[in-house]
Structure formats: structure tokens, C-alpha cells
Design brief:
This protein is mainly β. 0% of the residues lie in helices and 49% in strands. It is built from no helices and 52 strands. It has a 20-stranded parallel beta barrel. Strands 43-42-45-48 form a four-stranded antiparallel β-sheet, with no helix packed on it. Strand 42 and strand 43 form a beta hairpin. The N and C termini lie far apart (76 Å).
């Protein structure tokens, strides 16, 4: 074993971007979502090295364990069959400058730091560095189960490449804080990819991670003082059989490009839309592979989410392409979206929060989901949101039912749902933006579904679907609206609504047959009449999913005159705050135990 100690007169070469003393660089300033500051020390930043105050290590001349026993800067080059071991005093820092090295370890870490104040691994521009392992046995048989393992703080910097062939070990792991400033990371055949037990801060970099476990993660769960994961920028391509990115506590993404596949992807989950039943295939306990998947209450089982946080989760900006077996974005606390572009395919919820889910801005395209947006409360104030869901499109649900609420203050929202379009186990309020809902054809769900009230005070609401369970906004709404029930109209038919002068207010083209249309918009006025046509031609589809412009022709289906805040035409639908209900709630029991609501006949389980 070759031991390296610092020679007389040699000292650790600090990397100083802030002169004279330590500095703290604050990350991109976030909005209300900011969890904390990302703290970088001066030596975390990459700088070029020279032969002055450094020690060179030529791995070509050695075998087995090469030990570094004093702090300092070491330029490492060549190839080694063995382990590069760092074991220095607890108050010393070691910087390794990797000059295109290759280390193949034998059933142990290729680079192992068992004791130091901090290990810094630098990869100069153009360097290509490879760590690999030849081993037998299971991961649990190894004391330090990662190719690059540090017992203390670890920083990676430089723009060079670090290639890790982990053979079912973790690729990079530290028991303390991990900071990645830059670099190109290529991880193959790993269990977990990159782990910062206490905290993980990523300033920038390029990451290609293929793992049997998680891609990026923190694991500290003893209290809430640690376990944060924060990403400032970077390019991430992650193919993880479990979670793509997982934070034990808070998670903040300021920017970056993300392409993440978790589990077997969304195609492995078959969604069977069934009324009043929760969950696709894996919600009943099985994933595509037959493995039991994780619930938040049982962390020992397999989780296949895209990006998840054990507490709060905020995204400022970024580009995301997600294909996930479970939720694509998941937070056990609040989930806040302030911007970014999202293309999402999910086996369960596209965006899920156990508490409040809020969207302030961004472009969200949900191509596949069981439920699109779900939280105990859902607050939408901006952005462009398009949802395709095999069950509910936007859902406010959870244990404390009285507090569930959907608020819509802005944005352009389009929902295509086989279940309920907007579903609140409480109330809904809308005062801005536009919402277009193409709801279910079957009678067991509705384009709108709420338990308490829907206060419609502004914006455009167009809800198209089945008449049997249809609801409209409540009578205490400030903005006028109406609900028309008709005979079933064919799918993919251009329909539109005009005012009494013949001007077209809005058009739509439902992907499913429909028998109910709900409309509320600022142009509607008390005492005036409005007509629904089907089979028209022309018009221009808008970002929010509705049509405007010159639409004409078609068959006149119904005309309605607004004589109250929310006016109904035709029969069917559920009694609610919008209309006067019969003393018995507008339903009657049938001899076979079913009950009748309007013209709809439902079995008792839907009561």
C-alpha cells in the first residue's frame, strides 16, 4: 500500500472565487417557494491547479490500496486496480484533481474517504475519468456500498466527465452533504445513483443515470433539519426503476432540463375508469411487475415516482419530460409550481400534494394520468394547463373533507376526463381565467362535482358531459351562467353557443358524446337568450380548448333565457346550490333499492 503525506512546506491550495475570506453564494432568488439558501464555500468552486503546493499521484505504478493520509491537493492520473483511500485528520480537506484516471476496485469503493473534514473531487475540462468495480456478493455485504463513497462532506466540481459502472452498488454516496457544482456524470448498472444523505445541492452539470433504485436522493429522516435536495440548473436524463429524484425533506428546483422515466413507465399501468373507485392497477397494491408499490405510510415498499418530496416541493422553472409508473410530481407537503414546461405521462397522478397544490405559471401538458392535479386544496392562478385523465382531471380530496377546495384565479385550463372534470370534496371558487371541461359520457360521473358550493365570480367556465350527474355553479355566484340538458349529441361534433343577436360566444368539440352543457362567462346577461347549436363549421380553436371566430350552420338544439343567476334548461342533473331542490333532495327511492335523481337511475352504492 502506498501512503501519501503532505511534504514539508506544502499546504492545501484553496480555490478562491471570493477573495480574502469564505463566501456564501446565494442561489437564484426564488419566490414564496424558497425553502432556504444554498451555501457554497470558496473551495467548492473549481479552479486550475499547478505543480505548486500539490502532490502528484501516478496510479500506473501502483496496485491495491493507495492511501492519502494528509490534507492537501493531489493531482491523480493513470490507472489502478484497487482503491484510492482518503484517511486524514477531521479538520483537514483533501482535493483530488482527476486527470483522466481509471480505477477498477475489487468489491469495494474505487474512491473511499473514511475520514476528513471535506473531500473535493475536481474534473478538469476534457478529462474522462472512469470508476468501476469487480465484485461478488450482495450490496449488504459491503461496508461502503458505493463506487465513490465519503463519510464526510463531498464536493464535485469541474466540467470533465466521471463515468461510473457500479455493478449494483450505489454510484456516488456521502453520509453528510453533497454539492455538485458542474461536470458530466454517466452512471450505469447502479442501485441508487447519487446520494447526499444529509443534503444534496446541485449547481449545474449533465447527468445520465440508469439505476435499479433511485436516481438522485437524500435520506436523512431523523428530524427536519436536514434531508433537503436543491437543484439550481443542469441537464438530467434519468431512467430509474424506482424514484427518479427523491428528497427526504424539502425539494426545490430552480431550473434545468429533466427527462425522467420511473419504474416501468406509464405504459405499464392500465387505467380502468370505474365510478367511485379509487385507483388504477397499482392503487390496488400491484405494479406492472407484480411488486407491491409504496404508499406514503409504508416507506419499505417500492416507490416508482418521478420526483417526490417528503415535505414541501417547489419548482421555479425548467423543462420536464416525465414518463412515470406512479405519480410524476409528488409532495407529502405543499407542491408549488411557479413556471416551467411540462410534458407528463403518469401511471397515477401527474401532480399530487397531500396538502396544497398551487400553479402560478407554466405550460403543463398532461398526456396520460389517472388523475391530473390532486391536492387537499388546489389553487390555480396562471399558466396553461391541459389534462387528460382516466379518472378525475382536477381533484381536491383527502382526510379532512370540509377543508377541500379548488380555487381558480387565472390561467387557461383544459380538462379531458373520463371521471369528474373538476371534483372537490368541499367547494370550488373561480374568479378568473378559463376552464374548459370535456367530461364523461357515462352517467356515474360529471364534468363538475362538488359537495358544498361552486361560487363562480369571473372568467370563462365551459363544462360538457353527461346530464345524469351534472352540476352547475351555485346560485350565490356573482357571474351569470346556465346549464342546458339535451338529447345525447355525437362526439367530435363542433357545437357552439350564440347570443340573441346571432353572435357566437364560444364553440367546442367534445371527444365524447354529451348531453349537458354548462356555461358561465362575463358576456352573459340576465333576461337575454342564448342558443346551443351542434354540427357547425368554422371557428378557430384557442389555447384553452374552446373555439372562437366565425362559426355557422348546424342544428339548433336548445334556447335558454337567463331569468336567475344560474338558469337550467331541460331535465336531469343533481340538485345543488345552483337550483331549488325538492324537500327530499330531489330524489326518490325505487322498489329495487335504487334511487332516482331526475331521469337518472343509480344503484345504492352511488348514494
Amino acid at each position: 500500500m502506498m501512503n501519501y503525506k503532505k511534504g514539508i512546506g506544502l499546504s492545501f491550495a484553496a480555490i478562491a472565487l471570493c477573495l480574502g475570506r469564505g463566501c456564501q453564494r446565494q442561489a437564484i432568488e426564488s419566490k414564496e417557494s424558497k425553502q432556504s439558501e444554498i451555501r457554497y464555500d470558496e473551495e467548492d468552486w473549481f479552479s486550475e491547479t499547478s505543480d505548486v503546493n500539490t502532490t502528484r499521484i501516478d496510479l500506473n505504478t501502483q496496485n491495491g490500496t493507495v492511501a492519502i493520509q494528509e490534507g492537501g491537493t493531489y493531482i491523480v492520473e493513470g490507472s489502478l486496480s484497487g482503491t484510492l483511500l482518503i484517511d486524514v485528520a477531521e479538520d483537514e480537506t483533501v482535493r483530488l484533481v482527476l486527470n483522466s484516471i481509471s480505477i477498477e476496485s475489487d468489491n469495494a469503493p474505487a474512491i473511499l474517504c473514511v475520514n476528513a473534514q471535506k473531500l473535493i473531487v475536481s474534473m478538469p475540462a476534457g478529462s474522462i475519468n472512469t470508476l468501476s468495480v469487480q465484485r461478488e456478493g450482495q450490496k449488504d455485504d459491503i461496508q461502503y456500498p458505493a463506487l465513490l463513497y465519503a463519510q464526510d462532506d463531498l464536493t464535485l466540481n469541474g466540467t470533465g466527465t466521471l463515468s461510473l459502472n457500479a455493478q449494483d452498488l450505489d454510484a456516488i454516496c456521502t453520509k453528510d452533504t453533497l454539492k455538485i457544482m458542474d461536470g458530466d456524470y454517466q452512471v450505469r448498472d447502479a442501485q441508487d445513483g447519487i446520494i447526499g444523505r444529509d443534503d444534496l445541492y446541485i449547481h449545474s452539470g449533465r447527468f445520465t443515470l440508469n439505476t435499479r433504485g433511485d436516481g438522485l436522493k437524500t435520506t436523512y429522516d431523523k428530524d427536519t433539519s436536514k434531508g433537503d435536495l436543491m437543484i439550481e440548473n443542469g441537464n438530467f436524463t434519468i431512467n430509474a426503476k424506482q424514484d427518479g429524484i427523491q428528497s427526504e425533506h424539502n425539494l426545490v428546483i430552480y431550473d434545468g432540463t429533466f427527462e425522467i422515466k420511473s419504474g416501468e413507465g406509464s405504459a405499464s399501468v392500465v387505467h380502468n375508469a370505474q365510478p367511485d373507485m379509487r385507483g388504477p392497477q397499482f392503487m390496488q397494491g400491484q405494479g406492472a411487475s407484480g411488486d407491491v408499490l409504496e404508499t406514503d405510510a409504508d416507506s419499505d415498499t417500492i416507490s416508482t415516482k418521478g420526483i417526490k418530496a417528503g415535505n414541501e416541493f417547489s419548482i421555479e422553472q425548467g423543462n420536464f419530460i416525465m414518463d412515470c409508473e406512479d405519480d410524476s410530481f409528488h409532495a407529502n407537503g405543499d407542491l408549488n409550481i411557479y413556471g416551467g414546461k411540462y410534458q407528463v405521462q403518469s401511471g397515477d397522478d401527474a401532480f399530487h400534494s397531500d396538502q396544497t397544490l398551487s400553479v402560478a405559471d407554466g405550460t403543463i401538458e398532461i398526456l396520460k394520468s389517472y388523475e391530473g392535479l390532486e391536492g387537499s386544496q388546489v389553487i390555480l392562478s396562471g399558466g396553461m394547463i391541459s389534462v387528460i385523465a382516466s379518472d378525475d382531471g382536477i381533484n381536491a380530496a383527502g382526510e379532512e373533507e370540509s377543508s377541500h377546495r379548488i380555487e381558480i384565479h387565472g390561467g387557461k385550463i383544459q380538462v379531458d376526463a373520463l371521471g369528474d372534470g373538476l371534483d372537490a370534496n368541499g367547494s370550488i371558487v373561480m374568479d378568473g381565467g378559463s376552464v374548459v371541461i370535456y367530461g364523461p359520457q357515462d352517467g356515474a360521473n360529471g364534468a363538475l362535482d362538488y359537495d358544498q358550493e361552486f361560487t363562480m365570480n369571473g372568467g370563462i367556465l365551459l363544462a360538457v358531459g353527461s346530464a345524469q350527474m351534472a352540476q352547475a355553479p351555485s346560485s350565490n355566484s356573482e357571474q351569470y351562467g346556465f346549464m342546458i340538458h339535451t338529447e345525447m349529441q355525437a362526439q367530435d361534433t363542433l357545437a357552439y353557443i350564440s347570443d340573441q343577436t346571432g353572435d357566437v360566444l364560444i364553440g367546442f368539440c367534445s371527444p365524447r358524446a354529451f348531453s349537458s352543457v354548462v356555461l358561465s362567462m362575463p358576456q352573459l346577461k340576465e333576461g337575454e337568450s342564448y342558443t346551443l347549436y351542434a354540427g357547425g363549421q368554422g371557428g378557430v380553436i384557442q389555447t384553452g380548448g374552446y373555439y372562437t371566430g366565425a362559426i355557422s350552420g348546424g342544428e339548433e338544439i336548445a334556447t335558454i333565457t337567463l331569468n336567475e343567476q344560474i338558469t337550467q334548461s331541460g331535465t336531469g342533473g343533481m340538485p345543488h346550490q345552483g337550483f331549488d331542490a325538492k324537500p327530499d333532495g330531489g330524489r326518490r327511492e325505487l322498489p329495487d333499492g335504487h334511487f332516482q335523481q331526475g331521469e337518472a337511475d343509480f344503484p345504492p352504492e352511488f348514494e
